[in-house]
Amino acid sequence: MFDVIKKVIITEKSAAxxxxxxxxxxxVKNANKIDVKNAIQQIYGVKVAxxxxxxxxxxxxMGRSRLPVMKRHACxxxxxxxxxNKTIDVNVFSKEEKEKSRKEKVEKKxxxxx
Length: 114
Fold this sequence. Notes:
This protein is α+β, with helices and mostly antiparallel strands. It has a single domain, classed as RRM (RNA recognition motif) domain (Alpha-Beta Plaits, 2-Layer Sandwich), CATH 3.30.70.330. It has 3 helices and 6 strands, in the order E-H-E-H-E-E-E-E-H. The protein has helices at residues 12-17, 33-44, 91-111; strands at 5-8, 22-27, 48-56, 59-62, 69-72, 75-82. The strands form 2 sheets. Strands 1-2-6-3 form a 4-stranded antiparallel sheet. It has a two-stranded antiparallel ribbon with strand order 4-5. Strand 4 and strand 5 (69-72) form a beta hairpin. The longest helix is centred in the C-terminal third of the chain and has 21 residues, at 91-111. The chain starts with a strand and ends with a helix.
């Protein structure tokens, strides 16, 4: 289930909605609403009322002097509303993700042959 959700999006706009039980997550491009709902319920242990998905297009922006145009990759986000007045600790996902990435780094170092 961790492969469906990439990270929690914390902006001023999304943080204002957290009190109402609305959270924003960045998800993989091929995930559907049911996958996102099941992942949130399994990770945080809360009931999900609605899931809205948005596909953000890639954008061009001005770079530095040598790089005139840079592209930001397209991404997809999910806006999740919880049932009732439930709230979740969004740092739980980041802690588990950090532990997972730390274990992967240790395994890679062990597998390196000199």
